[in-house]
Every structure is written in structure tokens, then in C-alpha cells.
């Protein structure tokens, strides 16, 4: 493994943006590493405001025909006015994600005499560490979030015997929003909250301490450790979302973890984490061997000043994998807009699941970066959405199947969100999410998984069959819909968002229908339904090229109100889908290049996640130089000191999208071809990546030298016939029943 995978600071965090994230899927913490008052900002993934709500507008179905009529006649402003009244949910908004709170550790030390301070996040061990000296005495703190034991563990050590004394208290924002607090016995403190709403969540957070030689006791809501050489804190939390006996469950969790002791907790954590993390190893050779020892903010600053730091690329890539492991594990909720790390009682965009790109982007690296297990929480949420979305489809639109709009929450809410015309009335969220079901199958070959989720894909397709109407040209189109968050200008000067048959919708429908058809063939069922999908596919409008040589975003070649918009939805067919390729659709491929160039010329990519999507686009366009340029732009302009993505403010999707983009630069596997180093930048002269996954379940190791493939190793997956491509070389292979790795040279000749 690359041994230089640490995010490093030489001072405590001055703000949340400099703190270090740890997590186990359910529990998360941001470690500040402050001296006298250490701060851990804490999260639990199911702490959300309110509860499930019924928000379907009872007048939606009544006014839908009129809204459609107005849009198809070109009277869009009138349609939008009516839609705001009739299609907006009642109430308009879902609940939001909330923090658990803060753990404050107050130490009896002098922070004006600190020497040799270091704070780091070790990605190989998933451990955050703080160390410093005061008057010759060394203090060390280590933090990790254990998935096997569902606790956050903090170990505090001192080189001086019995040299540690501190108090600990759990609080929420401004010392408010807590209904009950206190201590349980001598060694545990707690907070408890009874949230509002007719079915609001209640929850608790607890901290338990133990020490070999120190005194542990509690007074009121405060926990004390005195005269210890080493002390361990265990932190856990539970809510009524999972446990009706959440308080007793948390006590039991902490007791079991304490009985194991620190060494066993750490051993089990490390074994669990490295099983996932160590699957992929990525290295770029650099002339400067020592930059990895510099503080990470300094490395970013030097990058902004024009220095080269190739070592930052694997660090950032692996940080994305680390974040996915830390925020999305089997049994947890999916990673939300901030993963699991959120300090605000009312966070930006509610820190929900925004499903017009952001949630999907969170999971773009899951399969290719060999973390299929981390994908599973998303499918659990989709199943909840299917139940809610069936009612939404029926009562809002009079349709069968299920649908969702541009946001959801932990209860699988599927109604329109917000009162915002450029985003609210978009019924494609479920369809896009269901494409992840197929993607998981493509990488794992798990037919039982596909079978168990087939009906979900089918119902998303069934909704669209019912929802689409014929336009003036006889094409089947969605109506009403929109191109996410963007606005166009009608010839009369009106600025509008609602439309029919936007390009992204057509591309999503094409993808979903084709994948349901393939699933039907694999599972040997539902042939009549597959036939209906094929008939509908033949009636979809084509993707068009507009007056600027660009792919049209809308069914008409409207002017854009914001040509540099952050969403580039009409290139969905380029990435994450593979409908637009140089081989299959050369004209659209060239138009995609012009689309991207035009967007960038007007300033697109100004948000972190948008820049990440642009990296993925250039990877698919086989333009390694531009992909790398946009990685540098992401690091220079949209990356916080702790390497978290900056929208601004923080959103985690940019981390995940860029990680997926880097993987796509080195390996692509769509349309039946595994392509090696399709977008290798000239600057990445020598390096290797081991453990990436290709569709078909193949594990790929790639080594290159002087910009050319040196060695390729493939461990066969579940598909036996494989086509491999490197530049103009193509090899067709039949792995038969072999499970051992095949090694190839640069000519794709087998050398083992």
C-alpha cells in the first residue's frame, strides 16, 4: 500500500472546516484537536427533525391535465403559476438532518507552552491522532469509529505517570435542544432528546470512561477522569428510528464495548476497515518525495500557487474511498448531502438526500472503487421510497408504479420538495436511483440481488409508461418536467423552467427501460412488459444538436438564462450513462465536447460537485489533460483545508464524484469493453493502481511507465468473455472457469 496517506495539520482546528472526520456509517465525529478544550462534534445518521409526513397536494391530479395542456401549447408561465398551487406539496418541505451534539473535554494543561504539535488522519487505519508536548511531557489522543462495535473510541495517553486529568460533558448547540441529561453510575454521562412531530424521533447520546490507574466519577451532567496515565472514552448513540429501547440499547452497546477493552476494540476495527480500504492501492511517482510530510493546508496553498504535487491525487482519491466507508455501511443509512458530518441544527439544503444528482454522485465510486458493500444502504432507502412513491404516483398523477421528485429523507418521502420552480416539479428521482440497482448487478453478478429489486426497477419504469404523453410530433415525453435547477428563455423573453421531454429525462428513461429489459431477459420473466418498454423506447424523441453545436438541454433549442450553470444535466448520457460514445454516436460525442466547452466558457464548475462531474465528463471524452486540469481546479478552489469538498459550503458529493472521475481516467468498462488508461494525463508519467473493479466483476491492476502501459493484471469475475482495449490494441479473451489472475504486457499479450 501507498504509505503516505495522511491528512496532516500542525495546529488545532480553528473551525469545523479544519477538523478531521471519522465515522462508522452510523456514528460520525469531527475531531478538532484543541489543547485545553478538546472538541468532538458528533453525529448519528438517523437523528432527523420531525417524522414521516403525508404531503401530497390533494388538488394535483385535478389540475394536472390543464398544466400539461398549457405547457404543450407553449403557455408555460401560466402552467408554472398553476403548478405552484396544485403540484407543490402540502406542506412543501420534508424534515432535515440534525447533529447529535458536541463532546467537550476540558484538560488541566497550559496551552501557551505547546510544542511539537501534530494532528493527522491516517487513512490506512481510519484513526485520527493528536500529539503534542508541554514542559517535556508528551500527550497523545487517538480516535476511531468502530463499525463492529458501533462506538467511537478515544484513547488519551500521557508520558508522565498519572498526568491526565479532564472533565467531559455532552452538549448541543448553544446549550439548548436537550430534554434530559445526567449520569448513569460513576462512569457514564448522557443526553436525551424527545423530538417533535406526530411521529418524531427520540434519541440519546452517551459517553463512558474507563482507566487503568485513574479515578473516574460523575457529578451532575459531567464526567471526570483524574490522575490517569491512560484513559479511554466510548461514545455511542441510538434513536427510535431503529430501537424503541434506544436508551437501554445504548447502555448495552457501551457495556459490551468496555468489556472488550481498548486493544480488542482497535484490533477488530482495524480488521474490519482494512478489509475494505486495502482493496485498492494507487500511486503516482513524483520527483518530490517529502511533500507528504507537509501539513495538508500548506500543500493546497502551494498547489494554488502553481506547484506540482502529484502525491495529493492518490491522497484525495483514497480520502474519497475512506469517506464512503465511513459514512455508508450495511445497516446504516446512505450518505446524505454531508455524508454523516453536520454541525448545524438547520444545515444547508437540510443535509437531505438530493436525488437530482447529489445522492447519486455519492455512490458513483462505490462499484468501480471496489466498495460494493457500501452501496447497499442506498438500496434499502430506495425500497422505502417505493412504498411511499406508489401512493405519490397514484394520488398526484393517476399513475401506476412509483415515482419520486428531487429530494427524499430517511422515511423515503417522495413528494415534491420546496417551492422552487427550477427544481421542485421533476418526477424522475426514482428512475435515476433505480439505475444504481442495475449498476450493482453489473459489477457483482448477484442475480439474487437483481431478482429481489427487479420489481422496484419495473415499477419506476411503469410509472413513466403511464406518465408520458404524446407531443405534437407523436413522441412520448414527460410533462410536466424540467432540466434540474436550470432555466430557459422563450422567444417572447419569458424565463421558464417547466417543460416537456427535457433531454435528461429522455436519457434516464432510455437507460431505465433498457436495463429493465435486460433484467427481464436475465431473470427469464416479464416478457410482455419488456415488449411494452421496447415499443415505448421507439417513440422517445431523439437527443438533438442545437445551434451552438451543443447537445440541446431542452426539446426545443431555447437560449439558456445561465449558460454557465452548475448542472450539466443534458450530458447525463455521457456520464454516468454511456449512451454517448465516440464509437456509437460520433456526432453526439463531438457535440458533448462543445457542450462542455461552452458551459466552462461561461464559468460552470464553480461548485465542488459540479467540478467533480466535469472531471467525469472529460474522463469519458478520453481527455486526460482536461480531466487533470479540472482536478487541480477542484483542489485549488473547491477543497477545504481538511480535503472535504466545498460547494460552498461543505457538501460531500464533490469528494465522491472526483474519486469516481479519477478511477474513470484509469479504467472504463461500459458497452462490453474494458478500456485501460483511457484518459491518462501526460503529467501522470509513472504509476500504478491496483484493485479497481470493472463491469463483469473483474478486478484490475494497472502499471504504467513513461505514460505507457507496462503491465496489466486481471482477476476474472463472473463474465467469461472479455474484450480489453488499450489505445488501438484490442484483445478478446475467454476466461472459462479460471479464477486466477491473468497478466498482460503492453501489447495485451498474456505473459503468465
Automatic annotation (TrEMBL):
Swiss-Prot/TrEMBL keywords: Hydrolase
Domain Glycosyl hydrolase family 95 catalytic: residue ranges: 261-666
Domain Glycosyl hydrolase family 95 N-terminal intervals: 8-243
Residue stretches making up the Alpha fucosidase A-like C-terminal domain: 668-734
One MF annotation (Gene Ontology) recorded for this entry: hydrolase activity
Domain of life: Bacteria
Matching Gene3D superfamilies: 1.50.10.10
InterPro entries: 6-hairpin_glycosidase_sf (IPR008928), 6hp_glycosidase-like_sf (IPR012341), AFCA-like_C (IPR049053), Alpha-L-fucosidase (IPR016518), GH95_cat (IPR054363), GH95_N_dom (IPR027414)
Protein's UniProt name: Glycoside hydrolase family 95 protein
Organism name: Anaerocellum danielii
Amino acid at each position: 500500500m501507498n504509505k503516505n496517506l495522511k491528512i496532516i495539520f500542525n495546529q488545532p482546528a480553528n473551525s469545523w472546516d479544519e477538523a478531521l472526520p471519522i465515522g462508522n456509517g452510523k456514528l460520525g465525529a469531527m475531531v478538532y484537536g484543541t489543547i485545553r478544550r478538546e472538541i468532538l462534534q458528533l453525529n448519528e445518521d438517523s437523528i432527523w427533525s420531525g417524522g414521516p409526513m403525508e404531503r401530497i397536494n390533494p388538488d394535483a391530479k385535478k389540475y394536472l391535465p390543464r398544466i400539461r395542456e398549457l405547457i404543450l401549447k407553449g403557455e408555460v408561465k401560466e402552467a408554472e403559476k398553476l403548478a405552484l398551487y396544485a403540484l407543490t406539496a402540502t406542506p412543501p418541505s420534508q424534515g432535515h438532518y440534525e447533529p447529535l451534539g458536541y463532546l467537550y473535554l476540558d484538560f488541566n494543561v497550559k496551552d501557551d507552552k505547546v510544542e511539537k504539535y501534530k494532528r493527522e488522519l491516517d487513512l490506512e487505519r481510519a484513526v485520527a491522532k493528536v500529539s503534542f508536548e508541554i514542559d517535556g511531557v508528551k500527550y497523545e489522543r487517538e480516535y476511531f469509529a468502530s463499525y463492529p462495535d458501533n462506538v467511537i473510541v478515544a484513547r488519551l495517553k500521557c508520558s508522565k505517570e498519572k498526568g491526565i486529568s479532564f472533565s467531559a460533558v455532552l452538549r448541543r448547540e448553544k446549550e439548548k435542544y436537550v430534554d434530559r441529561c445526567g449520569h448513569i453510575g460513576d462512569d457514564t454521562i448522557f443526553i436525551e432528546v424527545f423530538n417533535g412531530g406526530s411521529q418524531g424521533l427520540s434519541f440519546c447520546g452517551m459517553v463512558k470512561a474507563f482507566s487503568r490507574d485513574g479515578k473516574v466519577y460523575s457529578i451532575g451532567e459531567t464526567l471526570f477522569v483524574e490522575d490517569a496515565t491512560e484513559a479511554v472514552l466510548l461514545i455511542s448513540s441510538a434513536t427510535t428510528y431503529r430501537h424503541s429501547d434506544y436508551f437501554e440499547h445504548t447502555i448495552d452497546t457501551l457495556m459490551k464495548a468496555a468489556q472488550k477493552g481498548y486493544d480488542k476494540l482497535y484490533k477488530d476495527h482495524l480488521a474490519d476497515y482494512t478489509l475494505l480500504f486495502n482493496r485498492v492501492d494507487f500511486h503516482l511517482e513524483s520527483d518530490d518525495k517529502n511533500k507528504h510530510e507537509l501539513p495538508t493546508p500548506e500543500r493546497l496553498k502551494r498547489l494554488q500557487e502553481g506547484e506540482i504535487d502529484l502525491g495529493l491525487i492518490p491522497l484525495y482519491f483514497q480520502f474519497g474511498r475512506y469517506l464512503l466507508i465511513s459514512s455508508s455501511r450495511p445497516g446504516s443509512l446512505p450518505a446524505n448531502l454531508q455524508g454523516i458530518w453536520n454541525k448545524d441544527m438547520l444545515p444547508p439544503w437540510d443535509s437531505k438526500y438530493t436525488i437530482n444528482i447529489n445522492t447519486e454522485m455519492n455512490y458513483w465510486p462505490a462499484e468501480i472503487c471496489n466498495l460494493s458493500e457500501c452501496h447497499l444502504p442506498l438500496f434499502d432507502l430506495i425500497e422505502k421510497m417505493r412504498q411511499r412513491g406508489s401512493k405519490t404516483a397514484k394520488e398526484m398523477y393517476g399513475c401506476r408504479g412509483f415515482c419520486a421528485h428531487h429530494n427524499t429523507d430517511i422515511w423515503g418521502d417522495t413528494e415534491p420538495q420546496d417551492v422552487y420552480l427550477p427544481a421542485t416539479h421533476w418526477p424522475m428521482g426514482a428512475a435515476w436511483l433505480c439505475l444504481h440497482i442495475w449498476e450493482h448487478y453489473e459489477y457483482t453478478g448477484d442475480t439474487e440481488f437483481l431478482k429481489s429489486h427487479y420489481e422496484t426497477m419495473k415499477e419506476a419504469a411503469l410509472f413513466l409508461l403511464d406518465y408520458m404523453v404524446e407531443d405534437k410530433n407523436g413522441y412520448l415525453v414527460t410533462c410536466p418536467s424540467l432540466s434540474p435547477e436550470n432555466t430557459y428563455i422563450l422567444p417572447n423573453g419569458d424565463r421558464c423552467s417547466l417543460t416537456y421531454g427535457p433531454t435528461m429525462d429522455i436519457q434516464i428513461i432510455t437507460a431505465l427501460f433498457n436495463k429493465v429489459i435486460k433484467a427481464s431477459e436475465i431473470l427469464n420473466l416479464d416478457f410482455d412488459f419488456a415488449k411494452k418498454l421496447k415499443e415505448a423506447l421507439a417513440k422517445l424523441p431523439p437527443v438533438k444538436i442545437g445551434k451552438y453545436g451543443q447537445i440541446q438541454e431542452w426539446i426545443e433549442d431555447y437560449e439558456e438564462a445561465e449558460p454557465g450553470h452548475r448542472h450539466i444535466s443534458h450530458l447525463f448520457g455521457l456520464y454516468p450513462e454511456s449512451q454517448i460514445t465516440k464509437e456509437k454516436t460520433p456526432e453526439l460525442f463531438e457535440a458533448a465536447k462543445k457542450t462542455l466547452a461552452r458551459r466552462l466558457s461561461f464559468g460552470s464548475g464553480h461548485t465542488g460537485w459540479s467540478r467533480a462531474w466535469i472531471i467525469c465528463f472529460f474522463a469519458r471524452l478520453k481527455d486526460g489533460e482536461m480531466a487533470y486540469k479540472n482536478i487541480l481546479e477542484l483542489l485549488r478552489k473547491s477543497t477545504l483545508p481538511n480535503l472535504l469538498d466545498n460547494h460552498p459550503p461543505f457538501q460531500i458529493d464533490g469528494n465522491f464524484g472526483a474519486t469516481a472521475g479519477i478511477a474513470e481516467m484509469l479504467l472504463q468498462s461500459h458497452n462490453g469493453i474494458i478500456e485501460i488508461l483511457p484518459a491518462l494525463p501526460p503529467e501522470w508519467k509513472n504509476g500504478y493502481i491496483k484493485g479497481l473493479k470493472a463491469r463483469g466483476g473483474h478486478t484490475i491492476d494497472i502499471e504504467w511507465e513513461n505514460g505507457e502501459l507496462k503491465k496489466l493484471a486481471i482477476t476474472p469475475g463472473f463474465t467469461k468473455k472479455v474484450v480489453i482495449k488499450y489505445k488501438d490494441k484490442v484483445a478478446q479473451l475467454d476466461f472459462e472457469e479460471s479464477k486466477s489472475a491473468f497478466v498482460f504486457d503492453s501489447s495485451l499479450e498474456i505473459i503468465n
